[in-house]
Design a protein that fits this description.
Number of strands: 9
Number of domains: 1
CATH architecture: 2-Layer Sandwich
Radius of gyration: 18 Å
Largest sheet: 7 strands, mixed
Distance between the termini: 50 Å
Number of helices: 9
Strand order of the largest sheet: 3-4-5-2-1-9-8
Shape: globular
Amino acid sequence: MITDFKQIADLFKEIDKVTYHKIKIYTIGGAVLLEQGLKIATKDIDVVVETKNEFIDLQHSLQKIGFNQQIPGKEYSRMNLSQIFQRGEFRIDLFEKEVCGRFSLSKGMIDRARKVISLDHIEVYLCSNEDIFLFKTMTDREGDLTDCESIVVAAVEWNIIIDELKSQINMSKQDVWITWVGERLDILEDRGMIIPIMNDLNVIRNKFFDEFEKKHSKN
């Protein structure tokens, strides 16, 4: 387990030494919450890059410093994970542009991200809590709902979450994703959490189910 963000920062410095091209890395998981003190430890570092070339460069750099490729487990079934790399206590979940096959690194996410590390070749950005919350509502990984609760307690701008959700659905043209997010938010509500965007979310979800029913009733 990683218990200090400095461990992650030192890892990126190590990667930078064997990297020869510019790479912008967007961190979107527990590592961000660790940096904010919203999580005491994390076992994986979720990172997204924008381009295929950056993905390949980062993959090669990780292999140069001793990371080995792993096979994703069933908890990653929804995530369309590009690669998992492991070395000792460090596990990096690496995505190219898209997470879960539908959740893309959008302009809004890039604009909201905060740069925390600037090295010779690598720049590291931490995605916003709103985008991390959205990301964590579509996984089946143990602990992600608990992370969602921590994010909400720390305060989020719900309008950003619902706007990004709508944008992602429009971009992907695959609105089945709304059912995954809805399932997770239903659980959070059952745990007593107030979710101000539930009415808006239910409108989108009901529209999906209505259209799904119409489509299949014709067959």
